[in-house]
Write a sequence for this structure.
């Protein structure tokens, strides 16, 4: 049995988020999946809570020809589907829908953006005012959109602030990331650019800094003297779905390790910033990436594992292998799984391995950071030290956002029998309130001009300097055998061997610390 000790928050109630200034929100790619599933429901909820100004205007921009009424109906259907029958409020929607407008535009044609400028001024009392642009489009459209904004003079801040949100991926490698940043810099200054990674909007991710630096109990032991290793996992049961064309070009390394997992690594490893503001926090994260030495070809071979799922079973359903998915080549070598070992060469972390893994079609969907502490000296339990489990702190991002702390305790009885127990803190239960979606948090931050949770140009480039050598080594040495793990499994066997060489092991996917107690008996 696993013993849970419930942790309850001492305060509850609605979160105290900032309120945004009135502005015009322009969404490029307004009829796309991201807008329907994430952006519009998030904006609607911000409006309901009063955090989106009543005077704000939302303009959807896309190439499809339609009027504003049709666009509102399309968005109503999307928000209804996202919220569900029980949470969708028709009266609330009617109030929010008055903010919505539509402008048909070929996003690849810079000359059309003059019409968009006129439309913004028409809706906004003859002025451009404050503007937030969101590129909810494929990466190939970002540069034409930037060019169009520049041609129409829509980036200037003479009549109000102007900001742009750009979704990942930020390039395919270091050279393309630098070229993209150079293109954007022709139109926008760095303080106007918000590179978004939705992982950073999740409550548990944001709570890492509070957990580490706001509690004297943990920070003194957050170093190589006490920590054995760290594992960061982002596992999915889903396959690639309709994203075969994109995934063939990206793969798991570009799609998940760059940005998502590298951001989590930086938050768990960074030094304390002097203040919780954008530049201070981002400076410390960049320091982490810069203290990781890029891998040589030999190190890539020894410290990385790539995998691809074959057919298998997920929740009683038989699912196809990656090579049988739509838009995927029958002989594809694209990785759907990555495991890698990184070392941070500074005084805090020297000698501590950081293991990252991510994959599609795995046994369970779970995203978490697990900090494994060293086994303490145990002369009291002489000859039985294998019975005492090292402590683990697990920060759960998905599912059941929260934090677990495991420790050993004596089980009641006449013998010295130990059991591994866990303290379990869950946001939803502890605060008894709705947890904001990541896009709600990030959109509000961008509207308020807080770039703390967004990535800066030098941060993007620091990450690519670590990823490029892996991509190049893999390109020169194609994998010998793919697929190498079955759908519904824990992943490739080689990933277990990667940790076993250092005497470590992965946590089983989907478990909260352990699902079975580690017990043993010593004579008193």
């Amino acid at each position: 049995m696993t013993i849970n000790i419930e942790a309850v928050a001492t305060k509850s109630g609605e979160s105290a988020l900032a309120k945004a200034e009135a502005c015009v929100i322009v969404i490029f790619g307004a009829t796309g999946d991201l807008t329907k599933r994430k952006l519009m429901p998030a904006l609607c909820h911000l409006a309901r809570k009063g955090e989106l100004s009543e005077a704000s205007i939302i303009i959807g921009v896309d190439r499809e020809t339609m009027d504003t009424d049709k666009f509102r109906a399309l968005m109503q259907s999307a928000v209804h589907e996202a919220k569900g029958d029980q949470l969708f409020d028709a009266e609330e929607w009617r109030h929010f829908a008055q903010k919505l407008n539509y402008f048909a535009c070929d996003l690849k044609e810079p000359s059309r953006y003059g019409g968009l400028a006129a439309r913004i001024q028409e809706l906004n009392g003859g002025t451009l005012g404050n503007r937030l642009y969101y590129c909810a489009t494929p990466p190939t459209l970002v540069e034409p959109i930037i060019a169009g904004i520049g041609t129409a003079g829509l980036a200037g801040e003479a009549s109000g602030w102007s900001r742009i949100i750009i979704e990942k991926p930020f390039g395919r490698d270091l050279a393309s990331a630098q070229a993209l940043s150079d293109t954007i810099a022709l139109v926008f200054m760095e303080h106007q650019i918000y590179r978004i990674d939705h992982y950073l909007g999740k409550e548990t991710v944001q709570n890492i800094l509070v957990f580490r630096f706001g509690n004297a109990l943990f920070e003194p032991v957050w170093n190589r003297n006490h920590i054995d290793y760290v594992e960061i996992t982002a596992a999915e049961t889903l396959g690639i779905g309709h994203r075969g064309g994109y995934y063939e070009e990206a793969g798991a390394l570009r799609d998940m390790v760059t940005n998502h997992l590298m951001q989590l690594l930086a938050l768990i490893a960074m030094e304390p910033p002097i203040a919780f503001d954008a530049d201070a926090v981002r400076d410390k994260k960049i320091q982490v990436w810069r203290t990781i030495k890029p891998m040589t070809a030999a190190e890539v071979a020894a410290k990385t594992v790539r995998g691809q799922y074959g057919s298998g079973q997920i929740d009683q359903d038989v699912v196809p292998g990656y090579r049988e998915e739509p838009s995927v080549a029958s002989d594809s070598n694209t990785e759907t799984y990555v495991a890698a070992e990184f070392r941070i060469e500074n005084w805090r972390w020297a000698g501590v391995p950081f293991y990252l893994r991510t994959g599609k079609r795995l046994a369970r969907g779970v995203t978490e950071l697990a900090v494994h502490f060293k086994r303490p000296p145990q002369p009291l339990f002489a000859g039985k030290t294998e019975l005492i489990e090292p402590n683990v702190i697990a920060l759960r991002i998905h599912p059941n956002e929260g934090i677990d702390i495991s420790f050993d305790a004596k089980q009641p009885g006449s013998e010295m029998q130990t059991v591994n127990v866990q303290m379990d803190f869950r946001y939803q239960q502890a605060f008894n309130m709705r947890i904001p979606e990541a896009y709600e948090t990030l959109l509000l931050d961008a509207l308020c001009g807080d770039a703390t949770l967004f990535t800066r140009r030098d941060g993007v480039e620091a990450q690519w300097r670590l990823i490029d050598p892996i991509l190049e080594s893999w390109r020169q040495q194609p994998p010998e055998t793919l697929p190498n793990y079955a759908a519904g499994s824990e992943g490739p066997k080689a990933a277990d061997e990667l940790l076993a060489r250092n005497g470590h092991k992965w946590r089983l996917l989907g478990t909260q610390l352990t699902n079975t107690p580690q017990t043993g008996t010593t004579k008193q």
About this structure: The CA atoms of residues 121 and 127 lie 5 Å apart. The two ends are 23 Å apart (CA to CA).
